[in-house]
């Protein structure tokens, strides 16, 4: 009978527990329905995408790139056909003196149209058509109609495609440099966002450490109050615990300010002027173990460095300027030729219709030469072109060395930061164990509260140091990725191709 009662009691107990669990589950489910789900974490890739879309530096650089493309069209326009036209009406009166039979007068009306074309050799072709109506007053009216073709070709100075395409090639190289400047701006923006993102992640993690520290300080304060109430605590311990709580609260205020400042810094990059926007949780993924190689990183840096590529194009521009300066030191010798047909009739129709009847035609060939005395301007331009080329060569070598040093420094930073993470994690673990041991000794009356406070401060410092070392590793990896240019591929960023040659 006793056994049956015991079994029946256990059955009721299990039923009650099951019922309680069911009600608790139902309550949690109802609460979950009322509570909106937390926002998804804001990833670093999303922040970078927003920054590249809205960042001021990126917007300015895109405008600059568009302007450089327009410069190519401006240079090409020098070879567009040019239409021209003129019209005039005049009156002339002349007196025959000392011989003649008095004064004569006439009115002239002229209409002319031309089309000219500059060629890549430097030559200029021009076709012109003109008509005159002459009213001599003392005789019948007559009409002149003429068609002419002329050409001027430089032989020495300003001759050849190199000189005459120089403006176009210079503009094209400038547009390519502008694209590399855009790439540099993109890499810089990525690096700035990474820094701001990790700074916010660190500030929030540090704030959690500070809150944990406050909880520990509050717990120590409560324990000391209990000890004093039972007669085993000291007033000094209470005072020290109060100071510990106050310091922890002050640290939290400072930590909250750091978080807000970090949020503003990130918002300024990804969403300008929207500082009231709340930034939700972050998705700061721990970096994977790295397998770095100096040779690989240096090759990537040299191949992908926008600054180095831009300087290489500056060298080409300087070489082009030098070639032009050498050509333009020569005298200006131009060959000129022209040919034409014309007709004169008493009415407009016959004059126009008989322009090409070959009864009236002319042609001429010749040459013109000019050479400035001393050629001081040309010599100075040539010297400046040589100096600019030498300067760019030195600048390229200097920049190449800077890339080498930056890669070496970045790799050492990654290696040092990886070791720093390992050491700081061990130090934090050791500080936690030391604090727990000292706290246990204090609970047994074998230590002082002052030592417990010191151990707690060491633990807080060790946790912050570990966070700092992890952020340092992320930033070191970001610096190396920026040098290698691998940030673009990592975040699936594609840039516009440079203008075709």
Q: What is the topological layout?
A:
Layout lengths: L1 H33 L9 H11 L1 H21 L5 E14 L7 E16 L5 E12 L6 E13 L6 H4 L1 H65 L4 H36 L23 H11 L1 H22 L4 E14 L2 H6 L7 E10 L5 H68 L5 H36 L1 H5 L11
Helix pairs in contact: 2-5, 3-5, 5-6, 5-8, 5-11, 7-10, 8-10, 10-11
Care to describe what's here?
This protein is an alpha+beta fold. It folds into two domains: 47-80 and 161-331 and 375-490, Outer membrane efflux proteins (OEP), CATH 1.20.1600; 86-118 and 123-157 and 332-370, no CATH class. The protein is built from twelve helices and six strands. The chain has helices spanning 2-34, 44-54, 56-76, 161-164, 166-230, 235-270, 294-304, 306-327, 348-353, 376-443, 449-484, 486-490; strands at residues 82-95, 103-118, 124-135, 142-154, 332-345, 361-370. The chain has a six-stranded antiparallel sheet. Helix 5 runs antiparallel to helix 8, helix 8 runs antiparallel to helix 10 (376-443) and helix 10 (376-443) packs antiparallel against helix 11. The termini are far apart. Mean pLDDT is 82; it is low at 1-32.
The major β-sheet equals: 6 strands, antiparallel
Helix-strand sequence: HHHEEEEHHHHHEHEHHH
Tally of individual domains: 2
Mean of pLDDT: 82
What's the arrangement of strands in the largest beta sheet?
Answer: 1-2-3-4-5-6
């Amino acid at each position: 009978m006793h056994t049956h009662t015991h079994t029946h009691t256990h059955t009721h107990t299990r039923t009650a527990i099951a019922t309680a669990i069911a009600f608790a589950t139902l309550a949690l489910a109802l609460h979950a329905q009322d509570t909106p789900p937390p926002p998804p974490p804001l990833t670093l890739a999303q922040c970078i995408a927003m920054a590249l879309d809205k960042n001021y530096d990126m917007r300015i650089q895109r405008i600059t790139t568009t302007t450089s493309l327009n410069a190519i069209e401006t240079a090409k326009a020098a070879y567009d056909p040019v239409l021209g036209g003129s019209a005039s009406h005049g009156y002339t009166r002349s007196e025959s003196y000392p011989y003649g039979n008095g004064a004569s007068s006439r009115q002239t009306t002229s209409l002319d149209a031309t089309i000219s074309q500059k060629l890549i050799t430097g030559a200029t072709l021009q076709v012109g058509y003109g008509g005159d109506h002459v009213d001599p007053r003392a005789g019948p009216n007559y009409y002149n109609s003429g068609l002419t073709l002329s050409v001027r070709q430089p032989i020495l100075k300003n001759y050849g495609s190199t000189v005459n395409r120089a403006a176009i090639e210079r503009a094209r190289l400038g547009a390519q440099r502008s694209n590399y400047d855009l790439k540099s701006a993109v890499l810089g923006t990525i690096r700035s966002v990474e820094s701001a993102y990790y700074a916010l992640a660190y500030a929030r993690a540090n704030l959690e450490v500070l809150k944990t520290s406050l909880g520990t300080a509050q717990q120590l304060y409560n324990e000391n109050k209990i000890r004093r109430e039972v007669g085993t605590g000291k007033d000094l311990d209470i005072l020290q615990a109060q100071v510990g709580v106050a310091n922890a609260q002050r640290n939290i205020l400072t930590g909250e300010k750091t978080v807000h400042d970090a949020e503003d810094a990130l918002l300024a990059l990804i969403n300008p002027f929207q500082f009231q926007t709340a930034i939700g949780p972050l998705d700061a993924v721990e970096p994977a173990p790295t397998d770095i190689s100096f040779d690989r990183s240096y090759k990537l840096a040299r191949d992908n460095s926008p600054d180095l590529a831009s300087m290489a194009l500056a060298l080409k521009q300087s070489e082009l300027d030098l070639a032009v300066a050498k050509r333009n030191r020569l005298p200006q010798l131009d060959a000129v030729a022209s040919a034409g047909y014309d007709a004169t009739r008493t009415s407009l129709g016959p004059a126009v219709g008989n322009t090409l009847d070959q009864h009236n035609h002319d042609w001429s060939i010749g040459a013109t030469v000019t050479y400035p005395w001393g050629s001081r301007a040309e010599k100075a331009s040539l010297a400046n072109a040589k100096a600019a080329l030498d300067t760019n060569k030195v600048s390229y070598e200097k920049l190449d060395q800077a890339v080498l040093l930056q890669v070496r420094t970045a790799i050492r930073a990654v290696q040092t930061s990886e070791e720093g993470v390992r050491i700081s994690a061990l130090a934090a673990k050791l500080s936690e164990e030391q604090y727990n041991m000292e706290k246990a000794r204090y609970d047994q009356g074998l230590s002082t509260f002052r030592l417990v406070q010191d151990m707690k401060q060491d633990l807080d410092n060790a946790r912050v140091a570990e966070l700092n070392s992890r952020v340092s590793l992320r930033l070191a990896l970001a610096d190396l990725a920026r040098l290698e240019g691998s940030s673009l591929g990592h975040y699936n960023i594609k840039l516009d191709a440079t203008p075709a040659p």
